[in-house]
Write a structure and sequence with these properties.
The protein is of the alpha+beta class and about 290 residues long. The protein contains ten helices and eleven strands. It has a five-stranded mixed beta sheet with strand order 1-4-5-6-7. A four-stranded antiparallel beta sheet has the order 8-9-11-10, with no helix packed on it. A two-stranded antiparallel sheet has the order 2-3. The mean pLDDT is about 95.
């Protein structure tokens, strides 16, 4: 099954399963798929519940992240403490990805690989990780997303992701691609609230690929050499009704960073002062006036 028709076939499989109709898979094959998913659930629970804080190293999952975040982590800077529900969110994400993989297997996607141990040598440093799945010889990632991220980023396609890749997903996929000598495929993304699924094909230009490669190489060199700390982002001016408020707040990249308190000492988490909403949206401010 080619990628051009896989999204439509996936939707058809989901529709049939939702309505209790017969799936296009034998009972024996379905048992195999369920057994594989059960194994993946066990591995996921072991990973989520049985690990401590890993020692810092450059790996596929972080090579696309901002340099300042990597420098903070390597230096052992204090992290923002995660809320109690974080572990449940991670478990839900794992479960959604396992369900999506099972549905892809039922759909009959041309799965040519997956769960491969990948290593990539770049600039004398070996980066390791484990890929998710391959279709037609190209490497893909399976992601779960919040409703906001699904609607405002993933559903808008590759360009929207490239403009604000807060978690370094493009660099991660590029590393899997280079490490295996395979094409970059893209991402299968599920909204973990609505259950909607979209396929986002990676579509970087050659110039973009060169920039991704050079950016990863530069980050690795600076991390390995313990280069001086570089803050990659600055606060943004706040506007309300298109008028400046005089306040400054963190952008998306910094707001999601675990080390924002170590980087910005006087942060304030405050409601937008000019908002008349009953429950105004809160932001992280570096400069805030009522």
């Amino acid at each position: 099954m080619t990628m051009s028709i896989l999204p439509a076939q996936m939707q058809l499989t989901m529709e049939k399963a939702s309505n209790g109709e017969g799936l296009d898979v034998s009972d024996e094959k379905l048992k195999e798929i369920i057994a594989k998913a059960t194994q993946e659930f066990e591995e996921g629970l072991t990973r989520q519940l049985g690990r401590g804080r890993d020692k810092f190293r450059m790996r596929m999952s972080n090579i696309g992240r901002p340099l300042c975040q990597l420098q903070m982590e390597k230096a052992g800077a204090e992290r923002a403490r995660l809320p109690a529900n974080h572990i449940v969110r991670m478990m839900i994400g794992d479960a959604v990805e396992i369900y999506i993989t099972a549905l892809l297997r039922i759909t009959g996607a041309n799965i040519t690989g997956g769960k491969d141990k990948v290593s990539w040598d770049i600039g004398g440093t070996t980066i390791r990780g484990e890929s998710d799945i391959d279709f037609d010889g190209a490497v893909w990632d399976i992601k779960s997303a919040s409703p906001w991220a699904y609607k405002n980023k993933w559903a808008k396609g590759y360009q929207a992701l490239a403009e604000e890749d807060s978690f370094g997903y493009i660099g991660q996929l590029y590393g899997y691609s280079e490490g295996q000598g395979k094409d970059m495929g893209g991402w299968v993304v599920a909204d973990k609230s609505s259950g909607e699924v979209t396929f986002v094909e990676a579509a970087p230009s050659q110039q973009a690929l060169d920039e991704i490669h050079d950016g990863i190489k530069d980050r690795i060199e600076k991390i390995e050499s313990d280069a001086p700390f570089e803050r990659c982002f600055e606060p943004v001016d706040e506007y309300f009704n298109r008028k400046p408020t005089g306040n400054k707040r963190l952008g998306t990249q910094c707001s999601f960073c675990d080390f924002k308190h170590s980087c910005w000492k006087d942060l304030k988490y405050k409601p937008q002062a000019q908002s008349k909403a009953k429950s105004p949206r809160h932001y992280w401010y570096t400069e805030y006036s009522e």
